[in-house]
Structures are given as structure tokens and as C-alpha cells.
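Journal club prep — side note

Before the paper discussion, L.F. wants everyone to see what a predicted structure for a comparable chain looks like in C-alpha cell form. Sequence:
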Amino acid sequence: MDSYKWSAAENNKARLEKKDVDGIVNFAELLEKVAAVSPGLRVRFSTSHPKDITDDVLHTMARHENICKYIHLPVQSGNSRILEMMNRGYSREWYLNKIRRIREILGDDCGISSDMIAGFCSETDEEHRETLSMMDHVKYDFAYMFMYSQRPGTLAEKKFADDVTDDVKKTRLNEIIERQGQHSLQRYQRDVGKTFRVLIEGPSKRSDDFLQGRNSPIR
């Protein structure tokens, strides 16, 4: 087993050196280089778009224990028609397949967070329920949740009428918030009794008597 690990590491090093010669390094390779600086270094990154989380990135995360097993994967909506109107560039099925690959490669302990918008232009009750069902399927650890509002100059503002009433938006947002609260609790309860290595980031926002930080499971 040890010789296999050494061989895999050497092969990967040779691949990265070749990329240096070519002058081209993709994000997965950059992540590999940063993680290799020091085993004690904790590496965490933000995700701008789900398409950026490729299998290469996931396999790089799996190889290095010092890369935080956390991915922010914005979904915005669980309905394919709304996603197309938002110009997100993916469908519900594509997104769910990305979630499946994360779980296959990194396991169920990998934290996943998301962004969601309630009441986008012309969104129906059924399409809203598809966002809730997406949440039920993924069970995000955390989410940033918003009620849709038009931003001047955006494509949505130019092309679509903001035709979902504020009362409906608020109701849908509250349903999303309540659902996420249930899922966050379920995810946190899985960690009761476990030991974690924590990178302290500073005093707690709630009290100076406590510290807060980012955790990783000790394997």
C-alpha cells in the first residue's frame, strides 16, 4: 500500500511538472500545488459556479487531507425552466448528477452549502416545490436564502416581469428557510460525539468567551 501511494504521488508530480513546462495549469492542478506546500496547511476555496467542480477537482480534494471537504454549490432553483430563465447553464438533472459525483468521490461527510432564490419571475407553486424537493434530496449543511428582487441592468430585469407577489415570495422563502433548518439540524446531529481538528479563526460572534473556527474530522 505504501509503495502504491508513493508511486501515485510521483506520477502526479511528473504530471504537474509537465504542465509547468507547457505553461498551463488548471484549477485542480493549482489546488494540488497549494495543498502540497505543507501537510499542516488548511486549504479552502469558494465556488463561483457548479461547472467549476469537475471530477479532477473532486479527486484532488480526496487525495489531500488538508483540503477542506466542503463545497459551496449554488443551485438557485430546483426547476429546470427557472434555471434556464436565470441563464444558469445547467438543468436540475445535471445539478443532481454533480451532487452524486461529490458523494461518490468524497463521501457523505463532505459539507455542501448552496444559494437559493424564492419567487423568481413567473415561478409557479409546483416549480417552488421542486426547489424544496432538491433540498430534500441533497440535504445541504447550510444555505444562503433570498427573496427575488430585480436588479437594474440585469438580463432578468430586461427580459422578465417581476410578477410573483411579495406575499407569495415571503411565504416561499419562509418554507425554504424552515426546510433548510431541518436539514442543517440533521447534518449537525450526525457529528455529535465525534472529534474534530479545528482551525481557530477568532472570537465567536455570539460571545468573546468562546472561539470559532473551521473543523475537519480526524481520520
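L.F.'s comment for the group: The longest strand covers residues 111-118. Keep this in mind when we get to the figures.
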